[in-house]
Amino acid sequence: MKDMDSNPRYSHRPQSMNGYEEAVEFLPATDTKKVEKRDPRWKFVVIGVVIGAAVISLAVGLLVWHFAYRMARVPKVYTGSVRINNYVFVDAYENSSTPEFKQLANKVKDMLGELYRGQKDIGPHFTESYVTAFSEGSVIAYYLSEFSVPSYKAEVLDNAVLNLKIQSVNLRMRQILSVDSFEAYPLDANLARSFRNNSCSYFLHAKPGEVTKFSTPGFPNTPYPPNMRCQWTLRADAGHVIRLHFKTFKMDICKDLTGDYVKLYDSLSIAENRRMMTLCGSYPPSYNLTFFSSQNVMLVTLVTDSKGRQPGFMAQFRQIPQTTLCGGIIRNSEGVITSPFYPAHYQANRECIWDIQVPGDKYVKIRFNMFYLLETGASENSCTKDFVEINHQKYCGEKKPFVVSSNSNKMTVRFRSDQSVTDTGFTADYLSYDSQNPCPDKFTCKDRRCINMAQQCDGWNDCSDFSDELNCNCSASQFRCKNSQICKPKFFLCDGVDDCGDRSDEKDCGCPDNNFQCTNKKCIPEAQKCDKTDNCGDGSDEIGCPEVPPNTCTKFTYKCKNNQCITKTNPDCDGVQDCQDGSDEDTNMCNCGKRPYSRKTRIVGGVNADVGEFPWQVSLHARNDGHACGASLVSPTLLLSAAHCFQDLQGIRYSDPSLWTAYLGLHNQAQRTSQNVVQRSIKRIVAHKSFSDYTYDNDIAMLELSSPVTYTDFIQPICIPDSTRTFPVGKSLWVTGWGALIEGGTGASVLQKADIRIINYNECNQLLENQLTERMICAGFVSGGIDACQGDSGGPLSSLESNNKMYLAGVVSWGDGCARRNKPGIYTNVTAMRDWIKVNTGL
Length: 843
Ligand SMILES: *[C@@H]1O[C@H](CO)[C@@H](O)[C@H](O)[C@H]1NC(C)=O
Ligand SMILES: *[C@@H]1O[C@H](CO)[C@@H](O)[C@H](O)[C@H]1NC(C)=O
Ligand SMILES: *[C@@H]1O[C@H](CO)[C@@H](O)[C@H](O)[C@H]1NC(C)=O
Ligand SMILES: *[C@@H]1O[C@H](CO)[C@@H](O)[C@H](O)[C@H]1NC(C)=O
Ligand SMILES: *[C@@H]1O[C@H](CO)[C@@H](O)[C@H](O)[C@H]1NC(C)=O
Known about the structure:
Oligomer: single chain
CATH topology of the largest domain: Thrombin, subunit H
Distance between the termini: 58 Å
CATH class of the largest domain: Mainly Beta
Bound molecules: 2-acetamido-2-deoxy-beta-D-glucopyranose
Strand order of the largest sheet: 32-33-34-37-36-35
């Protein structure tokens, strides 16, 4: 890189301005004196002058347009590589200061110059080329070429450069350099310029058998600097590939390449068509940030914007022997296949073929358990980038588990990745099955997937093609959709979600109390009527509203600390100050509901929560009982839980604080000594005085920890909703827990999560024979795939709100112990308990 620094070749001459200034000289200078003389011919003169002036102005206008806009020169930069066959790579080519590097670089520059000048659409605009690096193979040269082109010719230049085929050109230089492959890719001129500043460039070569580490400047003691451009050139010995792993990765969130980001290239040029991955934000620990190059080089670049506030990354790499081995001939009747290096990112430019064959009387099926072949912008239908192909059908993108079967004893699975953007790949198991009886003792779906008999006609689409839900007799707890005739659980009725696809489950629904029915039959909370927002979608909630003075106080308006009322719905912690005293954005109050990892966890269809996904989840252990109840952290010293956990029972004083131990930051019950976990004893338990152990009404309790906890990536408080915040029917929420032992089930080791949604109160109350009180929320599973006991008594019902924070919508209370697939669970309504919480916690 050094040789490029000596002359600042990227300063662009302001040619565009010259053109404009010349044109300005032509401006007509009308001779006013002549006009003043009342000569008889003055009329003709005036007309002549006017016409002349008009013609001149037009010409000038055209010239201005021509020079200022059409002729204005724009910088164009292309990057890419050329392969040189008649040179052998030597170590000196890794160092741009060596004579060997400079000598070969000059030859490549001459060759590129000759190549460009020979093309009529390219030559006139060519400015300069630079060689930035070499790598093995025989020798690959990475270059940047700079052009300055009138804007109207920019597109022509683009086409000409990108379609340039070196093989078809006759070059004098080719007698010196035997060049066969040539790649070019357009590059942002600013970006190219900033990467030429090598004040933050590192050149690293893997040492055999050793791990080489590198990190963002200042890591881990100070955040990375703002406005930074850094690059790390990683190399391995010939015949090896690079294995790069990010041990820590914490950066700002980026969006459309604003913010801070890291890019990885399977090349030494920053060409987008060789980009393996863009990384930014923070990844949950379950995301495997391991990458493999396809050759012996890799380039890592870092771009930061004006505000750098995060620690950055720590990475390490080593070399491993290059192997082209993947795929193979398979003759076992069952086994597992994965993309190369799964669960790390697969390499670019790979093809693997598995030829599976089982005994003659059997068929083959393959079940993909994880499938991530995602490339933004690639179509999922045509799968032109990375894909898996089976029986001439291509699969790509991000998929939930799926099954493919063949109608013979053979199956060919082909995996292919193109040269850009890689993902974590797939894992699949294949097995042979009896073509006569594909699912012994099980129900056979149309796609030959096997499901438990009990899952047939239960209202859930377990086969994924609905074949288990056709021609069913609906049970007492089910209703029948009109068009599809499919039976569905009754608790799907009237929740505002179109489960049938024809809205037949949303017809004839009166609205629950405190709700307003829109003209389109949607129900919205009364509070949203006349709030100047179209909550119905048809505007009917904003018709005929009395002209109330703004910010008058009602039951539904948010109240600031200074008693000012705000008409806007959910004004708290939305990033906009609505209260004059700023109390709606109070930093103490709003420091809650945050999840440390900005990236969503990707375990599609999984039930294990990710580490740090619900950092407010607390496990309460009762002496001699182990994990007995859940709770939610709401401040450094306070927890909310369910009152029924602390009722004395069978001679055990569960109401005694000294019986309990709280574990915070816990993920796996078997790893309570992990460094992320904090343990506290309980100082005080306050259960709601009106808790009824008969109806479970008012099932809420407050616990005080013996000493405050410090917030970390694994320990964070959840937000308590204001009494005006509403969680509408149909809203999807998370319930989490290890499975409460106190209810008699067996607990899970790893924290479980389930996506559930709020059920229509009246429908639920009917299903549960009028056992609900007004302080209860009813919620049930959104999709049928899971049938495990989820959630612990006292644990959180977490709701992601529009301000991207999680709010405590409910506390797990009762309902067959916990939420089940076909049984709703009952939760304490936290907004209904808001006053009690305020009195007892001060929050
Ligand atoms: C690169 O080469 C120059 C000149 O030969 C030498 O001074 C310098 O130490 C080399 N740099 C490295 C990192 O080897
Ligand atoms: C290169 O970047 C550094 C830090 O970003 C900056 O201080 C320096 O002025 C830059 N040098 C040039 C030649 O642009
Ligand atoms: C990531 O993938 C690599 C390569 O397959 C593997 O060795 C490593 O254990 C994985 N790391 C995690 C955290 O799963
Ligand atoms: C539905 O009920 C009818 C009559 O009771 C019975 O013949 C049929 O087998 C049932 N269908 C299923 C899928 O259970
Ligand atoms: C919870 O209680 C509040 C206040 O009584 C009520 O407005 C709200 O509708 C209830 N939430 C649910 C989901 O029933």
